[in-house]
Amino acid sequence: MAAKSLASCIFCKIIKGEIPSFKLVETDTILSFLDIGPLSKGHALIIPKYHAEKLHELPDEYLADVLPTAKKIALALNAENYNLLQNNGRIAHQEVDHVHFHVIPKPAPGDNEGLVIGWPVQKLTMDELKKLQEELLTKL
Ligand code: 5GP
Ligand code: ZN
Q1: Which residues are designated catalytic?
Q2: Which of 21, 82, 107, 131 is such that its CA lies 20 to 30 A from the CA of 113?
Q3: Quick one: which atom of ligand 1 is closest to the CA of 22?
Q4: Which Pfam families does its entry note (predicted)?
Q5: How far is the CA of 131 from the centre of ligand 1 (A)?
Q6: Total domain count for the chain?
Q7: What residues does ligand 1 touch, defined as CB less than 6 Å away?
Q8: Considering the entire predicted model, what is its pTM?
Q9: DSSP states of the chain as a string?
């Protein structure tokens, strides 16, 4: 799959070297670099070298190096606690419309640094879960 680029995209510009970045790992299909607005020390981004706004629009081959790179970065950071984050769409907190994965160290329990997550658990019955599973299985 040929790489796709969008001239106006800030992350495509970083891939092309038109905007500087503090690079960490580069392969044929991904680039990783330090986030300019870190939530904690070592907050890094991994971006595919293909312009797609959201994950479901990205060809699979551009995903192959993402998790191995996230693991590499976590090891290099010596981070015992960390989050991987990938936002899709504005109300899901996506600000840059080029698929990207965050590696965000979580410094200490109770510390306000790092990713702060709301986890509003919804109550579903077993029947509702089963119905949902059946619906999804017809599409997977
Ligand atoms: P999102 O909210 O879209 O998931 O995250 C976008 C991330 O990209 C933010 O954490 C933001 O700090 C980072 N970011 C935006 N512009 C730049 C840039 O020009 N350089 C770097 N290194 N990071 C950027
Ligand atoms: Zn782009």
Answers
A1: 100
A2: 21
A3: 22
A4: HIT
A5: 38
A6: 1
A7: 10, 19, 21, 33-37, 45, 87, 93-96
A8: 0.96
A9: ------TT-HHHHHHHTSS---EEEE-SSEEEEE-SS-SSTT-EEEEESS--SSGGGS-GGGTTTHHHHHHHHHHHHT-SSEEEE---SGGGT--SSS--EEEEE--STT-SSS------PPP--HHHHHHHHHHHHTT-
